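ok, trying the design again with the full structure, not the truncated one.
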């Protein structure tokens, strides 16, 4: 028993407060098991997979300088999205200005790589708004729905006559490892992604 007590003292588990006070504090923090289970389940539903791979970040090279803009992902913001081809990304961001800058990028995509004038960021944005009603792309749609009100739509114009938009998309996906991207990784990264 002495060894266990010494170990607790060294690790810092023993409080200097009397045991009676400890029992009072512990019992005042108790909550019904069903409520606690609900609290745990609520947090688990919002626990997502994140891959942070510095080697991929450092290996990123792009043929284009990308100038990103963003809007809150909702129907009202669609008017701000341009009717041009380009790259886009979705990220979840906390809404409070008192928080330090943080976000979770979960998807990168492209539109207009075929140089079709009908495929624009504006059109693609509307297609994703529709996903909030009918889920077509399972993972992306689930994240859009789950974090509705906290999602930012990032976009940048890319001229398909000057740059290979699919290649730019693949470079970003292979560097950032967004969780909802399954395909479009480059040839080096694709086999590793499939192992997940």
């Amino acid at each position: 028993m002495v060894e266990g007590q010494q170990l607790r003292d060294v690790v810092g588990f023993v409080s200097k407060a009397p045991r009676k006070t400890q029992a009072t504090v512990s019992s005042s923090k108790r909550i019904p098991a069903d409520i606690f289970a609900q609290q745990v389940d609520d947090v688990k539903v919002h626990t997502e997979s994140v891959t942070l791979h510095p080697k991929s970040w450092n290996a990123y090279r792009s043929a284009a300088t990308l100038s990103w803009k963003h809007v809150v992902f909702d129907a009202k913001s669609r008017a701000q999205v341009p009717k041009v081809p380009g790259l886009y990304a979705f990220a979840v961001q906390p809404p409070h200005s008192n928080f330090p800058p943080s976000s979770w990028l979960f998807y990168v995509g492209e539109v207009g790589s075929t140089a079709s004038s009908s495929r624009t960021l504006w059109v693609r944005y509307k297609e994703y708004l529709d996903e909030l009603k009918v889920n077509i792309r399972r993972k992306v749609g689930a994240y859009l729905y789950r974090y509705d009100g906290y999602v930012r739509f990032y976009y940048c114009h890319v001229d398909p006559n000057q740059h290979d938009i699919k290649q730019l998309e693949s470079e970003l996906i292979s560097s950032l490892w967004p969780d909802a991207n399954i395909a479009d990784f480059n040839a080096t990264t694709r086999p590793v992604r499939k192992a997940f």
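Keeping the full-length input from now on. The first helix runs from residue 2 to 11.
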